Please model this.
Amino acid sequence: MTSDRPDGGAGRTVSLVIAVLLLQMGFILSYIGAFHAVRPHQVPVAVVAPAQAVPRLAAGLNAIAGQPVQAVPVASQAAAAARVRHDQDAAAFIVNPAGTNDTLLVASGGGASVVTAVAQVAVQADAARHRTVTVRDLVPLQPGDGRGLTGFYLVIGWIVGGYLVAALLGVAKGPRPATARLAVIRLLAIAAYAVASGLGGALIVDQGLGALTGHFVALWWLGTLLVFAAATVTMAFQVLLGVLGIGLTVLIFVVLGNPSAGGAYQADLLPPFWRAISSALPNGAGTDAVRRIVYFAGQGITGHLAVIAAYAAAGIVLTVLVCAVREPHGRHSAPARGRREASVRHARCA
Model:
């Protein structure tokens, strides 16, 4: 016996294909939009020069077309160097009053692309005044951290693992746990996975490859938080939207999060939109947190940890609340569904 009702599966399939197409176009737009025209924008730079010259020099640097740097006068070379070592400024421009060769103090650990961009500005500014500049790196990259990209790929690996494990659990067990208790059990399983994932990533970059060394425990727990945040957000989206929730996860963490994270190009070099969302997403918050842990003794990571923890907390609350709200319907619908199926079987036998 066949049904006369029209099959709605075709319409659903078309809708899913269109959603994937839009997601794909968003991926292309976001990555190319972020990287096709990178340039520095108001990168903080300390300036040390003779008292009578420093206002003019700082004003001249700030007046460069496109405002690549934001020059701030500093009283001494020691104070400027401290600001660079503490990641308060990306660089320090030190004018030599006794000669024509100046010095640019930088911190490659804060981002190799920013250092390159600021160095180019300094060279051009000195060339216009018939002077030269020597670059001195106060916070060099660790030997295994090629171009400072290790932290970025570590964070992306953790986030990918987080949303994949939640998505796979959704496929295997259903996107919506039937009760709040089952939702909590799934969240606990995800928490255990996050601890193991954070540990594995830290072991690989430290003891395994020697890419980022000396901060094993801090990286382990940062990784745990990142994985758990990505997983709980994915789970919440699936509880709210079903399979479409996975697409929303990809939009946030891949389409928007990866190009704005500050990997190959730090946030100060990205166009306005991607620069604005960089630290508001776990990708960017996590990438900068790794840099600060490894190269700047963890200074300034509190805000980043708060952002990542907020995503995790929102994912937990949404998941449990939605499952709790739907739970009464689930208890009543199961017997009713069983009675309907029994009636269908009886009618077919008759």
